[in-house]
Design brief:
This protein is an alpha/beta fold. Among the domains are: about 60 residues, no CATH class; about 45 residues. It has a five-stranded parallel beta sheet with strand order 3-2-1-4-5, sandwiched between helices. α5 packs parallel to α6.
Length: about 160
């Protein structure tokens, strides 16, 4: 097995952070690139509710701020948590999370996806995004149950 590229999707939830130790360990073991991706909601898709005009402009501003904040959060995460990785890349895109993650797997020729079983949207035992990725991914998906991780994090606070 040769793992050259690992995709780590995150929605910035505490649950998504549970995948981190697995990403770091496998990236080091295989000298793999880490591709960290955040899929943001495309707020302009809701423009028909707002119509055109000043209110619509607010959606675009909110979208821009959301993407800027996501980039800052990913850059901080990489600086603070992925400094031991030799190569990592940040991807911030808008769209449907599962569809976008699956397209990214193909576009980047990813060898492995590592993600939490559920994130902000919840779901049991798998979140809907994770379930769709697992069912449709052309590459292996390592799913991490964040339960133990979240309990440890709660114990530290």
């Amino acid at each position: 097995m040769n793992i050259r590229r690992i995709l780590w999707p995150t929605d910035f939830s505490p649950a998504a952070a549970a995948a981190e130790p697995y990403v770091l360990s496998l990236a080091q073991a295989y000298d793999a690139e880490v591709h960290l991706i955040h899929v943001g909601e495309d707020l302009t898709a809701f423009e028909h509710y707002w119509g055109s005009g000043p209110d619509s402009a607010h959606l675009h501003d909110l979208q821009e701020r959301s993407m800027k904040l996501a980039r800052e959060r990913l850059e901080n995460l990489c600086r603070e948590r992925l400094s031991s990785c030799k190569r990592y890349h940040i991807h911030i895109v808008m769209g449907h999370p599962a569809k976008t993650i699956l397209a990214t797997i193909d576009n980047l020729h990813v060898d492995l996806v590592i993600m939490a079983t559920h994130g902000m949207r919840g779901g049991f035992p798998f979140g809907s995004v994770t379930e769709r990725v697992v069912k449709n991914s052309p590459v292996p998906v390592l799913t991490v149950n964040p339960g133990k991780f979240l309990k440890e994090e709660a114990g530290r606070q």
